Amino acid sequence: MTHQHVVVGVDGTLVAVRALDRAADEAARRDAELRVVYAVPDRDEAAPILASAVTRVHARHPALRVVTEAVEGNAVRALTDASEGAALTVVGTRGFGGVTGTLFGSVSLRLAAQVHGPLMVVREDHPVDRAADPLDAGRYVLLGLQDDGDADVAAYAFEEAERRGVWLHVLHSWSQRHVAPEMPSLIPATSPGQQRLAQHDRAEEAVPRFSLARLQERHPRVGVEARTVRGGPAHALLDATADASVVVIGAHRRTGRVGPHLGTVAHTLLHHAHCPVVLVPAQE
Q1: How many CA atoms lie within 13 A of 69 on its CB side?
Q2: pLDDT digits (tens, 9 = 90+) for 128-159
Q3: In this model, does residue 193 exceed pLDDT 60?
Q4: Could you please report the per-residue DSSP string of 8-21?
Q5: Residues in a beta bridge with 89
Q6: What whole-number distance in Å separates Cα of residue 37 and Cα of residue 262?
Q7: Is-contact 78 39, C-beta < 8 A?
Q8: Rounded to whole angstroms, what are the CA distances from 22 to 125, 224, 245, 273?
Q9: Residue 46: closest CA among 20, 68, 29
Q10: Among the listed ranges 105-119, 192-206, 213-227, which one has the minimum average pLDDT value?
Q11: β-strands 259-261, 277-281 pairing
Q12: Beta-ladder partners of 228
């Protein structure tokens, strides 16, 4: 029997320790195996770091199954390969710096655009979420939902809320369509353009209600609070992360001249979110 597993990348730094702690907790929640991966130029360099990682994990979760792997070469490639079939891949980042908010942890950004399956990005200033900690009792899982193409993203968020035994807060965003200039109507909001816009509004707002209702039937123990915002969702989501245990969004990958990259919402949250960010590959 193949056990479910969680992958985490380590390199001996403080932020990698944050990621390791978080990954161990996530593996324990899932009753999964933890696979610790260290990409190095020479495998002989890896033994002390990997041994230290195992010792730290077992001090927190004595019964957790832990395997280690030293991989020669590029960290992004090693973790991308290791993420195949994983329930979750966890990586750390040093977050943002100065006014520009430059993401120092470039490995996490490049990995987010390539990884197989869900990816959790943890900054070194994110405290570890402990189920027994009363400070986490009022926290929730936050889901950023764009459209019905985010079905897998929403399903993951419901499962995450159920695992944690917390509420799921859903923020659905959409952009208002442009209405072409037309002759004004004597009765407000009854011109053909305004009627089409109102119909579009109702259809857009119905998408999350329909999708969430089906998922709630499958996860009846998960309480759900949902709201819709017009325009860019990045700042609304960012504000909501202050009281969240984790934020779940779709990884809407775009292909450019330098390969796949992420959208604005993902970039904003990876730079500035107050909690770990989980990116789930979304249908395009």
Answers
A1: 16
A2: 655 444 445 568 999 998 766 688 999 999 99
A3: no
A4: EE--SSHHHHHHHH
A5: 7, 119
A6: 24
A7: yes
A8: 12, 25, 11, 16
A9: 68
A10: 192-206
A11: unpaired
A12: 172
At 17, list the tokens.
């320790």
Tokens linked to 284 = 């395009």
How many CA atoms lie less than 13 Å away from 106 in the CB half-sphere? 1
- Cα separations in angstroms, 96 against 99, 105, 120, 161, 248: 9, 9, 17, 27, 20
Comparing CA positions, the residue from 166, 168, 165 lying closest to residue 154 is 168
Residues 110 and 215 sit within 8 Å (Cβ to Cβ) = no
Is 207's pLDDT higher than 80? no
Q: Which of 117, 115, 118, 139 is nearest to 127 (CA)?
A: 139
- Gap between the Cα atoms of 228 and 41, Å rounded: 48
User: 137 vs 133, 146, 244, CA distance in Å?
Assistant: 7, 28, 11
Higher pLDDT, 32 or 100: 32
pLDDT tens-digit readout, 3-37? 699 999 999 888 899 999 999 999 999 999 999 99
DSSP per-residue string spanning 214-268? HHHHH-TT--EEEEEEES--HHHHHHHGGGEEEEEEEE--EEETTEEE--HHHHH
Alpha-carbon distance values, 99 to 15, 61, 102, 127, 234 (Å): 21, 39, 8, 23, 18
- Report the 10 Å Cβ neighbour count for 262: 19
List of residues 6+ apart from 13 with CB closer than 8 A: 92
Question: For residues 130-143, b (16+ Cβ closer than 10 Å) or e, as one string?
Answer: eeeeeebeebbbbb
